[in-house]
Design a protein that fits this description.
about 240 residues; alpha/beta; six-stranded antiparallel sheet; five-stranded parallel sheet; 6 helices; about 35% strand
Amino acid sequence: MSFFQDAISIFKKRELTFIESYKESEDVYTFRFEKDIDLTWKAGQHGLFTITHKKVKNGIRPISIASAPTEDVVQLTLGISDAPSDFKRAMLELKQGMKIRMSGPVGSFYLKDDSPSILIAGGIGITPFRSMLKQLEAEGNGVGQQIHLLYMDSKKSFVYKDELDEIANNPLINVTYLDSRNDLYQEISKLSSLYQKNGKYYIAGSKSMVESISAHLQSNDISKKSIKKDVFFGY
């Protein structure tokens, strides 16, 4: 999506009705909202979400949409520690029927063609990739390209693992679970040598993780234009 399209989309505001939330792992929660019939997005994009049930300092946050456009809900998954921010505390206070405001969708972090795609997730950075893979699954597993998901989680929680394993039954989709940066770099090096000329690389996670992996890819002669980044902040 172009900058101009994003600029238009950001002014599209709507209220989403809260359905439920549940704990995915020790410090990861999923929140599900009703999806308006006219709401759509490209799998991997994010929205700007605003707390409306109380006054919260810095109450607007960009959050990747974890559900696929073909699913009947808007799903957000957040890492929430024992000492959450005001924004995340307000999210935990949501009760069925309450509202949250969404602007967007925005962003260019989505699959664009049939090139082999290497998806690299760090922790909660798995959320846009769940959207992408669930969308491909919904399209009848008509995957036109080879897809490799490298999912690193030092806590070994691996949110969505059951769903990802099911999706990986497609022979063109491969999922590798990793719990150390060194192992991740080794897998990236293998794939970058295999898809040096025609692969597209998508990285989602913390700023330090995204920047270090981007640098690692470029040191393996992967061009900047073949790398798409989605940086997650803690807020």
